[in-house]
Description:
35% of the residues lie in helices and 28% in strands.
Amino acid sequence: MWGYTIRMKRSKFYRFFPPPQFLQMPAVGLDISDVSMRFAELVEKRKGFVLGRFGERAIPRGVIEGGEVKKPTELRAIFADIKKAYNLEFVSVSLPEEKAYLFDLRLPVMKYSDIRGSIDLALEEHVPLKADEAIFDYDIVKEDESSITVSVSVVARSLVDGYLEAFSGSGITPLAFEVEAHSIARSIVPAGDKNTFMTVDFGRTRTGIAIVTEGAVQFTSTVLVGGGSLTDIIAKKLKVSYDEAEKMKHDKGISGNSTNDDISLGLMSMISILRDEISKHQTYWQEHPDDYGKKRAPIQKIYLCGGDSNLSGFSGYLASGLTVPVELANTMVNINTLDEYIPEISFNDSLRYATAFGLALRRPK
């Protein structure tokens, strides 16, 4: 299924023999993590998109672990509940980047309809999966007179099968699956900007880091530091419940806990781990040539998104010591100019929906 939607997007064949109508319908973006899911619908208007249905649901611990569905029956019940409440029909679904393999491949000039087959033949040389065990997606990064360079993302077929099992019988049909780093890039990197950026998705249980250049994701990494790590520190130091610590974190932010040295030191240490990882990936990117010996384009900016990325003092402390400017992402930059449209979601809340927005922005060609 994943490969089919991409083949439909890339091949001119479908201009003459179009796929079934339902596969061309815009889908609601459904962002699924280990602990929650968020969905967002974008309705196309004359002056851009407007936000339609959106919302979120908690996922009990153990239903999904490390991005893999462990309890499909329980996940199916959550899907069925969302179907009943919001009448969702077709969705594009995120897959965790920590389960994906990324690589670049330079191909000789060929018809777009032949690219998939060429990647398929080379797949086992680049990932530890057999071709029939893998599903892949790709973006064309650049073309010249002699070659086509593609950025390929690969996941195990069994990962997707776990989600398909959970969707079966729920009333919701997944039309496409996409590694979340690609969805985030589509949401927060201005369309058409070919410069190089780093995206940092500061989630509840982990942080996803990606580097985007020429409009395509070239690198991803996952750091096991998230907003929940900060909450745990506050709860442990003050001996309060997780929910109480979560409220304190959002009320006071990072700098607001400076009156308690133990908490302040713990929070700063945790953020420093993340900052060091960002710095390490930035340095590696800019000091090591690509697979073809060429120097990589320097990172121009770091975009922050995710539920806790707007914590008071967080972005400032994260930026200290980095040589690239850091800013909170505008997750609606490719949705609407906002000149005449006021969305039904606040800026702070929108940071949690970057992946869902990016998925909803997918449009069949």
